[in-house]
Amino acid sequence: MIERLNHVAIAVPDLAKATARYRDALGARVSPPQALPEHGVTVVFVELSNAKIELLEALGAASPIAKFIERNPDGGMHHLCFEVDDILTARDALEASGARVLGDGEPKIGAHGKPVLFLHPKDFDGTLIELEQV
Ligand code: CO
User: What domains are there in the chain, each with its CATH number?
Assistant: First the structure.
């Protein structure tokens, strides 16, 4: 069902500092920051040859990242994103297996303009999972 790892998302307390670490210390290619108010984040994409790292900084008081940083002030891994061919087929199979889909269960348009769903971290060893239809 799942295919490639699309990205690992890291919640960061300071996006400029995190971006500089990936660019300067790790020598990675990084995008300019993009504000995505509908997702409550500002994101920088770190482009690797086989996947992306997304650095997420809270944008706005209702940001899901603000709550995460409250609990994890140094930042930390926020979610993994796996690619799927057909997100509705994947959702139905996962729900049939007992996994919980967050929200109303309907795919939303994610940060890359493609349909995404999130799966409950309690069902996946404490890891929030994003599925993206590519
Ligand atoms: Co993501």
Answer: 2-133 (3.10.180.10)
